[in-house]
Amino acid sequence: MPEVTSTEPAIDGWFAVDDAGNPHLIGSKCPACGTYVFPPRENNCPNPACASDTLAAVPLSTRGKLWSYTENRYPPPAPYPAADPFEPFAIAAVELSDEGIIVLGKVVEGTLAADLKVGMEMELTTMPLFTDDGGVQRTVHAWRISS
Ligand SMILES: [Zn+2]
């Protein structure tokens, strides 16, 4: 494992961290009909009844209710990064409290499917995904059980 020299998001533009260190997801909102989208994009409102072709970047709720979940018990195939040795991890689908859209994410280490229950309050955090050859630790948004 290379030594970690800095930390960067694995994917640019999906979340931001405020001055207090709290992350929030970045989504898109249609200015014409109010529909929210995640991951963010600049155009193509998904509402079939809306003709708007511009979406604006907006911060999304950092909390929501657990809508569904699963547990990965096998490592993903290359080129997807996986811990070695592989540790099972949970994936959560969380319905954001204000927007109502469902956002998938890994669940933090130490929380598996047996710990989860549909309807639970979840909150956003971030976690390391892998460290690249240049020593950059790549992070992703993740869900944890709300404290
Ligand atoms: Zn729209």
UniProtKB/TrEMBL annotation:
In which domain of life is the source organism classified?
A: Bacteria
Per the UniProt record, one Pfam family is OB_ChsH2_C
Coiled-coil regions listed? none
Question: Known InterPro entries for this protein?
Answer: ChsH2_C, ChsH2_Znr, NA-bd_OB-fold, Thioester_dehydratase-like
The chain positions of domain ChsH2 rubredoxin-like zinc ribbon read 22-55
Where does the ChsH2 C-terminal OB-fold domain lie? 58-125
TM region(s), chain numbering: none
The record's section on PANTHER family has: BLR3430 PROTEIN (PTHR34075)
- Supply the name of the protein: Benzoylsuccinyl-CoA thiolase
Q: Which organism is it from?
A: Mycobacterium sherrisii
